[in-house]
Amino acid sequence: MLAWIGALLLIPLAQPAGATLERLDAACQQARARGELQLLRTLQRRLLLVSPAPQPLAVVLANADALLRCGAPDSALVVLDRYRPAPGPEQVQWSLLQWRVANAALDHGLAAAALRSLAAATGRPLAQLDVPVADSGNGRWQSQPALDLLAGHLEALGQREQAAQLLFASPGTGVVGAQRLAQAVAWSPALPLEERQRWLEQALDQAAAAGAWGLAVSLLDQELQLLEGQPAALRQPVEQRRLRLGRRLDDNAATSPQRVRSPRDPGGHAATPIPNPAPALRQP
Fold it and tell me: How far is CA 39 from each of CA 2, 34, 35, 64, 70, rounded to the nearest angstrom?
């Protein structure tokens, strides 16, 4: 054990929390890097006790974040529960960290609740709320829409129908919209075949409008899988569209760049739109 870490563990808990938190956090990072599991558990217990309630929000968040970085998300949840944030900015900060901690702890129910609380606190729809999910290492965080994160948590809870309805209700446009619709269809095996096929056709339109031809190919493959075992009269038009688009993409890669026709152009790879109207879906 490093001497300075041993000395740190001897500091009385009555010492100012801020400096001790920073040093415990640094010690945790070293212990994790060196694989010293026994020391890591000792540091985790120390972090759990270093800032007992009551503490201001800044100390609670710093304590919970240090425990999260120390590989103890369950203990971080205990620390967060020591504080009840006020509506507004406090609720935003607290809910965001609660989601990060619950996500790390694989507590999908709590993570879903935290995302809904975060959206309510910011006053923004889930589809328009970007949540930082990973530190890229240069001080910038990679983000994902709260809508997609919430759908993932619901699916992990076995609530695929709710997750699909969430995506159907706010699919968006372009590549993102096409991917959401494709995922929602995959999570909706109980929907009638015609309805699932119609959603995939809508996704195909969005992929084509964005020029995402690789995605269009994937969508046609998904549609073919959907039609597996169906009469040849249903499968053949999709197979022909898939074959034509694949050939065009191969030709485009082998020669100079050229425009691949839209699936709605004459001779393109889209079939006649399915006439069934879209079902009325409730906004989550």
Answer: 10, 10, 9, 19, 11
CA-wise closest residue to 163 among 284, 35, 269: 284
Where along the chain do its domains lie?
Answer: 1-83, 159-254
For the ranges 98-112, 132-146, 189-203, 222-236, the lowest mean pLDDT is seen at: 132-146
What tens digit of pLDDT does each residue of 105-121 get? 999 999 999 999 999 99
Three-state secondary-structure class, residue 131: strand
Q: Which helix (H) or strand (E) holds 23?
A: helix 17-34
Q: Which two tokens stand for residue 43?
A: 């540091």
Q: Which helix (H) or strand (E) holds 36?
A: none
pTM of whole model > 0.85? no
- Tokens representing residue 2 in the block: 């490093």
Q: In terms of Cα–Cα distance, which of 167, 162, 59 is closest to 108?
A: 162
